[in-house]
Structure formats: structure tokens, C-alpha cells
Amino acid sequence: MSERGMADGGGRIVALCGGVGGAKLALGLTHVVPSDRLTIVVNTGDDFRHCGLHVSPDIDTVLYTLSGRANQETGWGRANESWRFMAAMAEVGGETWFALGDTDLALHAARTARLAAGDSLTAITRDIAARFGIAAGILPATDQPVATIVDTDEGSLPFQRYFVERRCAPRIRAIRFAGAPGAVPTEEVRSALAAPDLAAIVICPSNPYLSIDPILAIPGMRNLVAGSAAPVVAVSPLVGGQAVKGPLAKIMGELGRDLVPASILDHYDGLVDVLLVDRQDAAHARDPRMRLAQTLMTSLDDRIALARSVLETASTAGPGARG
């Protein structure tokens, strides 16, 4: 199927997404894939409770990015945010290590109240997306709690404590996902990945260890991806031998992985048919499963161009190279 066929409604696209890099490509995909043909499956391993509220950082980043509400400087949080709540928290001696903006706070409060009333995270996310004017499907990977735990030389830390409070300073020994064995992909996720007209599965340039692995750790999820008849295209999060954003380079180094595309391909072994690699890393793109594209996204045009490259790659790559 051609890229045009994918973009004009001829096939469905499912993207696995987490973090700022994933949200950027997701935004690009919304410009080239009809909304009723695009599903974005989002990591929930970052979810946690703070100040009594259920916070879903990756889901919120996707919601804000796709609705034009994201802070363009940070990539996370809301634009034109105010911080009176945090100032008041500091005044009364509350925890301030994780910043909750005033308008961002409303989303967490509404989500927490609905979860307490028995609504699923999937239903809540769907309703908020609709209120934000987002037509594409945004699905939590699971409705059960899955928590990313980072085992470090300072002990085991919940992900947000490691990432935000400790600013990734402790040395990583291992990463695990508490609750994953008891979680299941939602019915909506299973349906999206098993759709008979699925044209491609996209693994966004998210951190493989922190954003994609929590999704794949959910029992049955890896088989849904690996067993799909649709081509699976991943985008390397490395550019020029470095991570664009976040602690990926530090994590890979501490886990003994080289900062080259081959390490990303090895990490996704058995899952992907093609890995898109930035042209700056052409010298390291020797595997026939690697193809070159501009993957660095600094503008909306870059996001759209990469989305088109992903679809073009998928249109010429059939399953069979996995493993």
C-alpha cells in the first residue's frame, strides 16, 4: 500500500508513544493520517499519585501537544501556565519537587475524581481528548496500574522520583515494571492492533527503556505487535550518536549499550521490520533493516515530514525481517 493510500483512509495506523519525542511524531501523524484511521497507544508506566491526584504525564503530553496546548519551550505541561498552587504548597510545607501548574492541576483533579467514581482511564482519556478537539484515538496502553521502577546504586526509586526529584542522578542497574504481570491491554488497544485493515504499527522515537518497554511489558502486548501482519516501523531516538532529549544516553551507557542505531534495533529485535535512522548516523546504518530519514524534529514541518517518511517506509516494507 502506498503512502497516499495510507493517508487517504486506505489503512489504519497505530503508534506506540511516550514522552516528548513520541508526542512530536504523533502530532505529525495527525497531519497526514485521517483522524478516524489513527490510534495512539500511550505509555502509562509514568503514572503516579501526587498530592492525592492521579497524574498521567505521557497521556497529558500527548493531549496537550495534539490540542495545541503544550508548552513549546519544555514540550510538557501547558502553555501560559501559572504557578500559584505550587507557591501555596511551598508556603504550607507541602511537596514541591514535582511541579503542578494551575491549569494542569484541573486535568489531574478531574481524572482523579472520575477514577474514584469507577470510570476507566481509557474512558476518561477519550472524553478529555474530545473536549480538547482531538479526533484521533488516544488510548492508554492499559487500565490497570503499571509503575516503572528504577533500580539504582542508591536503591529502588519510583520513576518520577528518579526522573524529576533526583534528576536522573543515580546510576541505573535495572528497570522493571511493577504491576505489569497483572495488567492487560485494553479491549480498544487489542482491537486497534488486530484490525484487519491495519496498514502499519509505528514505534515513535520515544525512550525505548522508559516509554516503550512499559507498554511492551504488559502481557500480550508484545505478541500483538510481533504477530501483526502489518509492517512495524520504529524511529530511532538517537541523532548523531546522542539522545535528543532526556536521560536515554545516560541509561544506555549505564546498561552497557553503545549509542548507535544497532543498539536500538537490537532492543526491538523480533518486533520491527524497519528502523528509521537519522542521516547524521548514516555511517552506522549498515543493517539492511535500517533506512535513513531526517528524524530530528525542531518544527511542525519536521514532524509532518517525518510522519510522511514513516508512512512511505511502511508502504515499501513488508513483515518478515523481524528477528
If you had to describe this structure to a student in words, what would you say it looks like?
- It is a single chain.
- This protein is an alpha/beta fold and 323 residues long.
- Helix content is 38%, strand content 19%.
- The protein has helices spanning 3-10, 19-30, 57-66, 84-91, 102-116, 121-131, 159-165, 187-193, 208-216, 221-226, 248-254, 261-267, 300-315; strands spanning 12-17, 38-42, 48-50, 53-55, 137-140, 147-152, 155-158, 172-178, 198-203, 232-235, 238-239, 242-243, 274-278, 290-293.
- The strands form four sheets. Strands 5-2-1-9-10-13-14 form a seven-stranded parallel beta sheet, with helices on both faces.
- It is globular and about 60 Å long.
- The mean pLDDT is 94.
Give the helix/strand class: alpha/beta
How are helices and strands ordered from N to C? HEHEEEHHHHEEEHEHEHHEEEHHEEH
From the spread of the alpha carbons, the general shape counts as: globular
What is the share of helical residues? 25-40%
pLDDT averaged residue by residue: 94
Cα distance, first to last residue?
A: 23 Å
Largest sheet report? 7 strands, parallel
Helical stretch tally: 13
Q: Strand order across the biggest sheet? A: 5-2-1-9-10-13-14
Which strand-content bin applies to the residues? 15-25%
- Please tell me how large the radius of gyration is: 19 Å
| Total strands | 14
Low-confidence stretches: none
